Amino acid sequence: MRDDMMTNSITEEMVAAFLDGNATADEVRMIVATLPHSTQLQEIIAISLGVDRDLALGFNIEEILLKSAYAASSKRGNLCCWECEKHILNRHNISYNEEEMLKLAKTNMWLCESGTQLNNIGKTLNILGMSIEQHFNATLKDISDALNSGKDVIVAVDGGELLGDRWAELMEDIFEGEIPDHTVVVLDYNTANGTITLFDPNSDNNSDSYPIEQFMDAWNDSRNFMVTAKDKEYVPSPIDLSDEILDSSIEEIIEVLSKNVHEVWAKSRVQEGWQYGHTRNDEDKRHPCIIPYERLSEGERDYDRNTVKNTLKLLQKLGYKIEKR
Asked: How far is CA 196 from CA 92, 149, 164, 319, in A?
């Protein structure tokens, strides 16, 4: 290898480990710190990542980080990304089996001993029904817009710059390079007081707030890498019952069943503390339909009738037959 690589004690074995995702954190820092100054190293890595040879000398640091930087540090070893994704799943009440999800992540190489590559952050969220998007060079406005639109936000950071010794981290950035090694979930961005609130798997708290300047120092190390996640749009798809016709013998019980549907609904509301009110008021628990079925408007009774009819049609479509004893 050329002298410019050897100057920083970068060996062929170290580069191979880096490309295979098996390099240590110190080796990753050394290689990334050397990249801007070593045209040979740029070319080797760019070609290995599938970049056109003519573009090799003008390497894309985001592309390198995406496939070589690992977010790992957490109180549970290398699971910071999983802890962030689990936090989001819990917020959305999405059920999951942690053992199965970790096994899946390891099988698919989303999670390895070094942690999780940036390009694999959010993969388990996607498997469990959420849509994800990944962005480099994101801004605070991007974070704000994502949160305001109901999305969850994970960012890659240098974890030590949030909870560690900031002076030591500054020296590390200068002499070893800026390497993201951690992920956090952004919970809130308060422009009024200039703070950002995070869920950090390394923290003993449910949330921690930081001055924007400190957060940006940590986030900049990942070239402001951000992953947004949101629930996929729910599209109701009931079973088609348009070809089902109820037998005339069943029609006669529809009104009885409809009245009972209303009675069950009204009873549950009363048990929850609701009372009749001329207009609906959720705060005061008032509802205009807490009255006898016979006093409901025709439209309200049709709502109950349609519920009953569709239930009976579904039973019929599934092969069941209702007969009077």
From this structure: 21, 17, 17, 57
pLDDT at position 26: 66
Helix (H) or strand (E) holding 314: helix 298-317
Band of residue 20 on the pLDDT scale cut at 50, 70, 90: low
Cα–Cα distance, 317 to 217 (Å, whole number): 62
Sequence spans of domains, the chain: 3-68, 70-231, 248-317
Q: In this model, does residue 66 exceed pLDDT 90?
A: no
Whether 30 and 8 have beta carbons less than 8 Å apart is answered as: yes
Q: In this structure, is the dihedral angle defined by the CA atoms of residues 91, 96, 98 and 102, taken in order, positive or negative? A: negative
CA distance 48 to 31: 14
Choose among 35, 71, 68: nearest CA to 158: 71
Q: What is the mean pLDDT of residues 227-236?
A: 88
> 36 vs 34, which has greater pLDDT?
34
Using pLDDT thresholds of 50, 70 and 90, give the confidence band for residue 161: confident
Closest CA relative to residue 85, chosen from 132, 140, 20? 132
At position 236, the amino acid (one-letter code) is P
CA distance 162 to 106: 28
Q: Which fold has domain 248-317?
A: Globin-like (1.10.490)
The model's confidence at residue 210, banded by pLDDT at 50, 70 and 90, is very high
Phi-psi region of 189 (alpha: psi -120 to 50; beta: other; left: phi over 0): beta
CATH architecture of 70-231: Alpha-Beta Complex (3.90)
- Calpha distance 162→181 (Å, rounded): 12
Instruction: Name the E strands within the chain.
Output: 70-71, 116-117, 130-135, 152-157, 182-190, 195-199, 208-211, 226-231, 275-276, 286-287
* CA pair distance 56, 118, nearest whole angstrom: 21
The one-letter code for the residue type at 100 is E
